[in-house]
Amino acid sequence: LVDLDGYFDVVVFSSLFKKCWQELRIGNAIVVKGRRSNNSKKSDKPGIVASQIYTMDEIQHSFVKQLELHVMVDELTDERLFGIKNILERYPGGKECLMFIKNDEEVIPMRLEKKVEITKELIDALSTLIDKESIKIGVKNI
After folding, report:
1. Which of 47, 87, 92, 133 is the most buried (most CB within 10 A)?
2. What's the pLDDT at 30?
3. Strand ranges in the chain using DSSP code E only, listed in sequence order
4. HSE, side-chain direction, 13 A CA sphere, residue 81
5. Residues 6 or more apart whose Cβ sits within 8 Å of residue 50
6. Are 43 and 5 a contacting pair, CB within 8 Å?
7. What distance in Å separates the CA atoms of residue 46 and residue 52, rounded to the nearest whole number?
8. pLDDT for 1
9. How far is Cα 56 from Cα 5, in angstroms, rounded to an integer?
10. How many whole angstroms separate alpha carbon 110 and alpha carbon 119?
11. Which residues fall within 8 angstroms of residue 76, CB to CB, at 6 or more apart?
């Protein structure tokens, strides 16, 4: 496999391989859960013994729990709030949406009424109104 830091070896035993062999193709993005390999060859390349392999769709549906919007109080105009509301309404779904309103001294969390389907398109639409760095996706532990 390859990640942002380079290549590494992943050992997938036959029982796990039988379950997920179709996902193990070049170009497929996956998440591997496992433990560090105790490679007896002491190669420079790191290794992992896989215990679970997840597709990005599985991560999206099983582990993503909420959308978080972190906004400074002085950036919240009526126009911007109305725009955020309209965008969220265009992406209905089952994930919670939280807004964290910040000022210099405190953060006020607010749970929004609308539940959303978190997609790239939703993030792109929201980033026209608020800084992309202020949009976070909350996940459960894998």
Report:
1. 87
2. 82
3. 2-3, 6-7, 9-11, 30-36, 47-55, 64-72, 92-102, 107-111, 116, 135-139
4. 11
5. 10, 11, 12, 13, 16, 32, 33, 34
6. no
7. 18
8. 64
9. 20
10. 21
11. 101
Q: Which amino acid is at 59?
A: I
pLDDT digits (tens, 9 = 90+) for 116-141: 998 889 999 999 999 999 999 887 77
Q: With CA atoms as reference, report the closest residue to 57 among 118, 133, 138.
A: 118
pTM over 0.70: no
Q: Is 31:53 a contact under the CB 8 Å cutoff? A: yes
Provide the 10 A C-beta neighbour count for residue 40. Answer: 6
State the pairing for strand pair 30-36/47-55: antiparallel
Q: Which tokens in the block code for residue 30?
A: 């996956």
What is the CB neighbour count within 10 angstroms for residue 130?
19
Cα 113 to Cα 142: distance, rounded to the nearest angstrom = 27
pLDDT (0 to 100) of residue 40: 52
Q: What is the rounded distance in angstroms from the CA atom of residue 12 to the CA atom of residue 2?
A: 15
DSSP code, position 123: H
Q: Which residue has the tokens 């909350």?
A: 138
Where the chain has pLDDT below 50, the residues are: none
Question: Chain-centre distance of CA 117, in angstroms?
Answer: 12
**Residue 124 confidence (pLDDT):** 94
